[in-house]
Structure formats: structure tokens, C-alpha cells
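Following up on my earlier message about iron/sulfur cluster. Here are the inputs again, as you asked, copied directly from the submission form:
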Amino acid sequence: MGYLLLAINEEFLSYQGEGEMAGTRMYFVRTQGCDVGCHFCDTKFTWKPEDQTVSEKSIVKRARASGAEWVCITGGEPLLQNLVNLIDKLYKANLFVMIETSGVEWSDLVKRFHFVCCSPKDLFTTKDYKLDEHFLTYANEMKCVVTKDSDIDFYLKLLEGYGGIKTFQPVDNNPAIVKIIANRNLPDWHCRIQQQKFMEVR
Ligand code: SF4
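Thanks, got it. Here's what our run produced:
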């Protein structure tokens, strides 16, 4: 099968700053397009569905040249696009691949990633999106943005029975939200900030 073109906003080499994989050197591939509409979104520049298109072949070439062992497919919402060929080529290049998704779109392709980080946005979307329940089985980590105390109650209910890694992420690295999370004293939940905003890397 030949190479397709994907809508890509940017690619860069950095450290993963969020969630369980924080600190891991990764080549980031940021897809274009997301209409979930979270007010705190720090990648609003990806929302418009159109942008330049990039060949899968060139993405794989740059990912290999970066020297990173991991590739992170992020967005925007990566699952709006057909990533099948890209994943095939990255695996043939012996790279590990993770995805960051809001979980509003399901594809069986999700089962093939080495690590799946899902960040449910049911509380924040301006549309009628909900977490697709497949992610309760196939996500390695649920990374849950907290903006206020009652958000925590929502996540506890949403993720009842979920057996993966559960992470609270205080919105905007807000120390007051960290205190709210700490006061709940939930031993099976992590609290992780967005480290990249302190490391001053992308
Ligand atoms: S799902 Fe992610 S990319 Fe989309 S609006 Fe929300 S925070 Fe931004």
C-alpha cells in the first residue's frame, strides 16, 4: 500500500511532559483538527480542520532521524485521521508508539499502540461528546483534567471498575487544584502536572 497524506500541525523532539510516561524522550507528531472545544485547551491552534498535509513516509524518516525510541501521536484529536499506514511504517522502523486522545472517537487501531493515554473531556466539551467505553478496556492511562472539586466525583463514577493507571492533572498546573486533589486522599490515583511548562521545552 502506498503512502497517504495526513493533516499534521507540527513535529518535534522533546520529553513527554504529562502522565505516566513523563520524562521519556519522544518524537511528537501533532495532528490537525479537533472540535471537542475545551476552554483550557493549550493547542487551540490545532482546532481548524485544514492545514498542510505531510506524507507518512517523511514523518517516519524524521522520527527515525530524531534518535528517539518513542513516537507520541497527539493533537488535536489524532483519531479523526486514518493512522493505519503511519502506525505500520513506524512499527517497521522499530519505534514504540503512544497516542494521546480525548477518547471521543473509537478505532480498533487503538489496540495496536504500545501505550494509550486517554483524557476524557465529557465535562468540558462544547459538543455532545462522551468517552467511548472501549477506552475503559484499552487505555493504559486515564489522564483526567481537574478544574474544580466536583470534577473529581465525576471521574470516580466514570472510571468505576477501570483497571489502568488513573491520573489527575490539575488544570493549568494550578496549585489550588493540587490541594483539592490532595485533600481527597485517593491512594489509587496519581496527581501529575504538565512538566513541559516548567522545563520550558515544547
Ligand atoms: S480534546 Fe484536547 S485538543 Fe481537543 S479541545 Fe480538548 S484539550 Fe484541546
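One observation from looking it over: The first strand starts at residue 5 and ends at 15. Hope that helps, and feel free to reply on this thread.
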